[in-house]
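hiii, so i know i said id send this last week but things got crazy w the move. better late than never?? heres the sequnce for the chain we talked about at the cafe, plus the structure i predicted for it. fair warning i was half asleep when i ran it
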Amino acid sequence: IFIDNKKYKKTKPPNRGRIVEPKGEYDDRPGFIGTLEFIESGDIDMIVYYDLYRFGRHHRVLGSFQTSLDIGNRARGSKESIQIWESAHKKPVSKIELGIMVTIGQEENDARARRIRLGKEGTLEHGRWPGVYDRLGYDTIRENGKRGRKIILGPQEEIDTVKAIFHWYDSGKSVVEISRPLRANDHKQKLDNNIK
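okay and structure toks below
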């Protein structure tokens, strides 16, 4: 029995290196990896999972599962293929069904990415920024009923700092030379607490 119900450290993007709750869209969950390794050994007759949506909600996860099934079935030689059973719906899942699910998942993922991109492009076309824009010398404001944020000039002190940076760069100073006086005067980036 393999269970993913505890937080773990991600080994792959997204959120690599962070401690996260296990989700069906992550293919690096410890229980899921253990399942794949066990399947690939070929020493298994059937896989039973509760619900495919809980088991894998991303084409990457289902694709990895399908690949491990292929490896496991080859390791079994002439024996019958590994069976898949979904207990929530009390039904077997065929390899063809799994392949269709992987394809549909890929299409849905691509469609979602297109929708997000079109939404961001539409926001930009209306003169607003789609998301956070924390940059030195600028602020953002929300306008009621409109998507995104309008970018405006920030505090005068930040504006003067940005102008100075460009002036130093135009005069031929290196990034290291520019960063020294900024660090000495304790200037901070908005996104990090350190000058990069």
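btw The chain has a mean pLDDT of 88. thought thatd interest u
miss u guys!!
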